[in-house]
Amino acid sequence: MSNQKHPSERPYLKTHSLQPENQETPIQFIENNHVHPKLFYRRNHFLFPQLSYSNYFLTINGYVQKPRVLSLQEIYQLPSKTIKVLLECSGNKRHFFKPKVFGEQWEKGAISQGYWTGVPLRNLLDKVGLRNGAKEVVIEGYDFGERSDLDHLYSFTRSLPLEKALHPDTLIAYEYNNEPIPFKHGYPLRLIVPQWYAMASVKWIKQITIIDKEFAGPFQSIDYVYYPNKDDNEGARPVTTINVNSTIQKPLNREILNTGKHTIKGIAWTGTGFVKKVEISTDNGDTWITANLENQDTHGYDWVNWSFEWDVTKKGEYTILSKATDSANRTQPKQPFWNRKGYGYNAIDTIHVKIE
């Protein structure tokens, strides 16, 4: 007998907007450690770009010794590597900030992961030769449009400091889970920047430009910046490294359960080192118990699955919490770092269940 689920039993993306398309992964129903492309969350600022793949070329120019224009075939022939990397939107869990903030009200599903195959960016930069004084690598995508705050057309463009651009695991990727990257996720080429929030992983790469100063495009200097204050920009700093975080996948929030044994399970991840420990509380934080980590390693680019067997005999309402700690001893806080654009939410995860 086939184990394939009937279409009505399969999970699907949760839609926040369609123009542009912003949809989140049903993370509570994800059982594999690599997310199927159809369930990979989608984050867009503009409509999908119009591309002609038959004459696609990647231009690398700017503060270099020898500018190059590379075809897809030339890139495919270069030595490649495959790495398992999670991508998390920096606005993941924005819905839970208090006071509320403006922006897409992502809940817990603006995160997905899988296997990315491509060429290290540093290998392409070696081909053009960086000039002395090169400071940042600017990656421009083909997606563009108007911004509500600026009277101009902009493409989605971001930069990386040289150190991050030259990291051996920063990839110009062309495959996801051993298949060409789906168009809606950046085909034919997208950047993959492990351990940084996914705004850095630019899709539909148009060109790469090396510059000798700080890049000041609006998706670098206005968006994806932590603004600690509601009414001024004092203390502003860029959004970069993923915060240590965890999500409870099971039970579901507000689920009604019977007395007896139940598995509490979820995922945990970090942008610094690796997840060292996950603790669970079933009494709203009065006591904590260490959960079982099922796929812990020191790589740190993907999430860790964790679980805890809960034997509950008393009826009533319960608050279940999860709290992750990474190898840099960063631990999820009780309260998130509030910022007015709602980035980097990583407070202790919380659900409520009723036992009958």
UniProtKB/TrEMBL annotation:
Residues 239-351 form the Moybdenum cofactor oxidoreductase dimerisation domain. Its cofactor is Mo-molybdopterin. Pfam families: Mo-co_dimer, Oxidored_molyb. InterPro entries: Ig_E-set (IPR014756), MoCF_OxRdtse_dimer (IPR005066), Mopterin_OxRdtase_euk (IPR008335), OxRdtase_Mopterin-bd_dom (IPR000572), OxRdtase_Mopterin-bd_sf (IPR036374). Coiled coil: none annotated. SUPFAM superfamilies: E set domains, Oxidoreductase molybdopterin-binding domain. The keyword Metal-binding applies. Residues 47-217 form the Oxidoreductase molybdopterin-binding domain. This is Sulfite oxidase.
